[in-house]
Amino acid sequence: MTDSAGVPGLICLQGGNELTPPCREMDRDLLARAPHGRAVVLPLASRRGSDYSRTADNARRYLAALGADVAVPDDPRRDPTQALAMINEAGLIVLTGGSPRLLRDGLVETGLDAALRLASRRGAAVMGASAGAMVACAVTLLPQWRGNPASGPGIGLVEGYVVVPHFDGKRSAWVREALTNAPAALGIPECSGVIVNGAELTAVGRAPSTLITETGREELPL
Q1: Which residues, including other chains, have CB under 8 Å from residue 91's CB and lie 6 or more apart?
Q2: Residue 127 forms beta bridges with which residues?
Q3: What pLDDT band is residue 49 in, cutting at 50, 70 and 90?
Q4: Which of 100, 146, 188, 204 is 20 to 30 A away from residue 81, measured at CA?
Q5: Per-residue confidence (pLDDT) for residue 4, from 0 to 100
Q6: Residue 79 resides in a domain
């Protein structure tokens, strides 16, 4: 990795159903493109306790089967020291899906949001799926139990886009909320993703993703 003044690492925003067989080719390619270092998984979109452990175990098995050296810290919401040290040495940082509100709040309250931004500026790659992709942006949608989603600040790894995950060509309320907060939305289907490398967007995975603005939609070809 380079120093903090180096080239930012690539970011892979995925639409959900992550860490499953249809994602293997996409994730194997991402691991090949990431700089040398461990794949560090942060399951902070999962609830404390067994939910966190279950997500961590699944991610560890999946990424190890792809040849990655995988590390998952103890839940940083108890003590972030271990996670901070791991992020500093990571080649790839993985934000798994679940609750975007839990993830965003967990990252901010532990200081891991700042550590992620620094790691990205040093060249580490970041993969965020569903909630992870949403929160990676400067603005994240925040699903509510009833009614349309709200929105709030993300951690700012990606500027100018709001992610609409699990995209099926519809999700009109999500798209409307996204476009009130950013120039464009990225509609990303499950087992699919968009690699953000500077100003360049590249669709990867099982299905094309969609760039949505107030003036129309553009399918990003695979």
Answers
A1: 1, 34, 35, 36, 37, 38, 39, 124, 125
A2: 12, 94
A3: very high
A4: 100
A5: 45
A6: yes
The three-class DSSP label of residue 146 is coil
Euclidean distance between CA atoms 188 and 207, whole angstroms = 9
Q: Which two tokens stand for residue 170?
A: 């519809």
CATH code, 30: 3.40.50.880
Task: Give the model confidence (pLDDT) of 141-156 as tens digits.
Answer: 999 988 789 999 999 9
Examine residue 21 and state whether it is found in any structural domain, yes or no. yes
In Å, what is the CA distance from 146 to each residue of 139, 142, 150, 211? 20, 12, 11, 27
Rounded Cα gap, residues 157 and 194, in angstroms: 14
**DSSP, res 35:** P
Domain that holds residue 64: 11-220
Bridge partners, 139 (sequence order): 153
Count of domains in the chain? 1
pTM of the predicted protein model: 0.95
Amino acid letter at 26?
Answer: M
- Which of the 8 DSSP states describes residue 12? E
The verdict on residue 4 lying in a domain is no
Flag whether 5 is in a domain.
Answer: no
Question: Do 102 and 95 contact (CB within 8 A), yes or no?
Answer: no
Mind listing the pLDDT tens digit for each residue in 102-120? 999 999 999 999 999 999 9
Rounded CA gap, 155 and 9, in Å? 15
Q: For position 1, what pLDDT does the model report?
A: 35
Beta bridge partners of 18: none
pLDDT at residue 38 tops 70: yes
**161-164 and 216-220 strand pairing:** unpaired
